Amino acid sequence: MPAPRTPGIAIHALASLLRQLPPSCGPVRLIGVDGHAGSGKSTFAGQLATALDGAPVLHLDDIATHEELFAWVERLLREVIEPLGRAETAHYRPYDWRARAFGTARALAPAPVILVEGVGAGRRAVRRYLAGLLWMELPAEEAWTRGRSRDGEEQRAFWNGWIEAERRHFAGDPSRPFADLLVHQRDKGYEVLPGPGRSVGPDRVLTLRDGSSAVC
Fold it and tell me: Residue 199 has what pLDDT?
């Protein structure tokens, strides 16, 4: 039986929706993009940023370290969120995962919308600063399999340690129950459903179809 058609909007309409949210961190609308490692957060955030006319994307991989896979909250608050909350340009030093050291400082100026992408973007200590939270809806095991395949044999040891750390993190500080929207990757585009913590967006399915520009 053919799948029933559902109401939907283009990704540019989702971007418009996010722009209309009230600022959550000074003048900035921080939008979290969370999900299991390997679930496609970076790709989706990149496409959404383009639809937002080049909105900045803060990758939490630049904030975390080998020794602090999830113990990076204080650094994120001090270097990024607190300055943005004062309408000031933030400065942070992206972590180099190969050199195991922080790199040259990078500026992040206040913008109407800034995407915060990474595992833990919707954690308890960060949620209060978010205007909206998107969760990549892909089961953990499937996401981890994709991530391992992407990173290859060189990162096998890292992935073994990462999976246990991610399990512990989400067991104690889950993000999905607070997500406003759930993002499903499809063969073409994305399907976005209302999330369990829905506080933004219409009460209907949002189908983000590549090449679509009108509400359907």
Answer: 66
State how far the Cα of 16 lies from the Cα of 14, in Å rounded to an integer: 5
Residues with Cβ within 8 Å of residue 104, at least 6 apart in sequence? 93
Specify the 3-state DSSP secondary structure of 13: helix
Name 213's Cβ contacts closer than 8 Å, sequence gap at least 6: 10, 12
Helix (H) or strand (E) holding 114, with range, is strand 113-117
Strand 106-108 and strand 90-92: pairing? Answer: antiparallel
> Which residues, including other chains, have CB under 8 Å from residue 155's CB and lie 6 or more apart?
148
Q: Which run of H or E residues covers position 15?
A: helix 11-19
d(CA 61, CA 145) in angstroms, rounded, equals 19
Predicted TM-score (pTM) of the model is: 0.88
Tell me if 126 sits within 8 A of 120, measured CB to CB. yes
- 43: which 2 tokens? 């790709």
Distances (CA, A) of 61 to 96, 97, 181, 200: 9, 9, 22, 26
SS3 of residue 95 by DSSP: strand
Q: Are the beta carbons of 102 and 88 closer than 8 angstroms?
A: no
Q: What is the pLDDT of residue 206?
A: 52
With bands split at pLDDT 50, 70 and 90, how would you rate the model's confidence at 10? low
Q: Is 6 left (phi over 0), alpha (psi -120 to 50) or beta?
A: beta
- φ/ψ of 176, rounded to 5, equals -55, -40
Q: Per the structure block, which two tokens stand in for 135?
A: 């969760």
